[in-house]
Write a structure and sequence with these properties.
The chain is α/β, with parallel strands linked by helices and 443 residues long. The structure holds adenosine monophosphate and magnesium ion. Magnesium ion binds next to loops.
Length: 443
């Protein structure tokens, strides 16, 4: 059985970034820039005021005589006249500096009387002026390729008139849950049935990672129905199944793939939870068969699927971020497989502290709630002790949005979520990728 490190290396080696394409800035939040984005014009576009006050061109010879107010320059409404010595123009923040003026006197440093303004002190020439091009010049590179477009980058590019950007596409990820025992949220589980909770973990994490989940529903434990769902998934950029990859007689994922164009890269990794993880390429698309136990699904998503998503999305650093933290209590290790334990990482004054969830059953969802990190315990470590300095992997939700503008809750308020999911699968798969298309396809 291969180790975590070997398996991760194979995943990273096998996945390459998708081809970039042009998309509108409006649709680019959370995506990675594939070509540098340049300013269409300089900013500020013209000299303008940084304060509400008065624009003057030279100091009055006689302060007592004041300056005549000859007009006003408001943001969006520039003053078009000429300003002579002894004159001032009322001005607002962001308004263009009138010709012939070079200094702003803030309103609080003036007294206004009879259409004249009197200065309380001596202003410094050039004060409170924002000069044309001081923020950036036309044609200047504002955002480099490889950068995730978050709110700050998007606003910067918008200010520079950039309407289209070249980005790696938003990833469309197909999710298929397998298991005769599964029912969708909204249905009452009958005897022996459980809710398809893995779908909700994956769907939420995919949104958090800036992807568009394509939720294909539940595949029964038989090759025919499972095969039909898998065939629908091949339009996606990456395919995830949960359950049915172990050695039980009802584990049909591998057998179903065998009749298709599937290249197996590995099956089984020496980790706990998540040992039966299957990874390969289906029609050249990365395919992850995640084990069905909720904590195993979640761990294998974080450990393997997340780096693959980052790589497909064009990110340079795909491996999980790590932190060194102090353990707050003892942890028993010593298993035959590398263990990955869900934990809470907190900054406490001068160091990170890590507390491992008491409930680590791979069949449980409970250990996943409120956890922001994973503690790895290597096989040769018998125990870890309170106060030990340990390395933990961060579970970040890095790429920003990706959320549908119609929220899941809103869209499903009338119909059951199960029905909604099934309806949308069909709809999603009819559409090929189009970088212009709006987000949130799984609704
Ligand atoms: P499997 O990997 O199919 O053998 O499933 C292992 C365990 O995970 C079983 O207890 C399943 O009932 C459970 N399980 C499988 N799929 C899901 C799912 N989508 N949501 C919640 N639990 C699941
Ligand atoms: Mg199963």
């Amino acid at each position: 059985m291969i180790s975590y490190d070997q398996a991760l290396q194979r995943v990273v080696e096998s996945v390459s970034p998708l081809n970039p394409g042009e998309t509108s800035l409006h649709e680019a939040s959370g995506l990675i820039l594939a070509k540098p984005a340049k300013a269409l014009w300089q900013m500020p576009r013209c000299d303008n005021s940084a304060m509400d006050g008065f624009a003057i061109n030279e100091l009055p010879e006689n302060f007592e005589a004041g300056l005549s107010i000859v007009g006003a320059s408001y943001a969006g409404h520039p003053f078009s006249g000429h300003v002579h010595p002894g004159e001032a123009v009322r001005i607002n923040t962001g308004a263009a500096l009138p010709e012939n003026t070079d200094t702003i006197v803030p309103i609080e440093d003036t007294i206004e009387k009879n259409n004249k303004v009197f200065l309380k002190g001596t202003p410094k020439q050039g004060q409170h002026v924002r000069y044309a091009g001081e923020e950036y010049r036309a044609e200047e590179i504002l955002v480099n390729s490889g950068t995730i477009l978050k709110a700050g980058e998007i606003a910067l590019l918008a200010s520079a008139g950039v309407e289209q950007v070249c980005v790696y596409p938003r990833l469309r990820v197909a999710v298929i849950s397998t298991g005769d025992e599964l029912v969708e949220l909204g249905q009452t589980p009958g005897p022996g049935q459980i809710i398809n909770s893995n779908l909700h973990f994956l769907r939420t994490r995919l949104f958090e990672c800036g992807c568009t989940p394509i939720c294909l529903g539940i595949g029964a434990d038989d090759q025919k129905t499972l095969g039909q769902l898998i065939d629908q998934a091949i339009d996606a950029d990456l395919i995830i199944t949960t359950g049915g990859v172990s050695v039980g007689e009802k584990d049909h994922v591998q057998a179903t793939l065998q009749n298709r164009n599937f290249e197996k890269i590995f099956w089984k990794v020496a980790i706990k939870p998540g040992k039966p993880l299957l990874f390969g390429k289906l029609e050249a698309k990365p395919f992850f068969g995640l084990p069905g136990n909720p904590a195993a699904t979640a761990a294998t998503f974080e450990l393997f699927v997340k780096p693959a998503l980052k790589r497909l999305a064009g990110e340079a650093d795909v491996l999980p971020e790590k932190r060194i933290a102090t353990l707050t209590h003892d942890v028993i290790g010593g298993g035959k497989r590398q263990a990955f334990l869900w934990c809470s990482l907190q900054w406490d004054k001068s160091e990170y502290q890590v507390t491992v969830s008491q409930r680590q059953g791979s069949g449980q969802n409970r250990c996943l709630a409120s956890k922001n990190a994973i503690l790895s315990v290597p096989t040769d470590v018998k125990s870890l002790y309170s106060g030990d300095r340990v390395e933990v992997l961060l579970i970040e939700g890095d790429s920003c949005l990706g959320h549908s503008e119609t929220s899941f809750a809103m869209a499903t308020s009338k119909r059951s979520q199960a029905t909604e999911l099934r309806c949308n699968l069909r709809h999603n798969l009819l559409h090929k990728r189009d970088p212009q298309r709006t987000r949130g396809e799984d609704l």
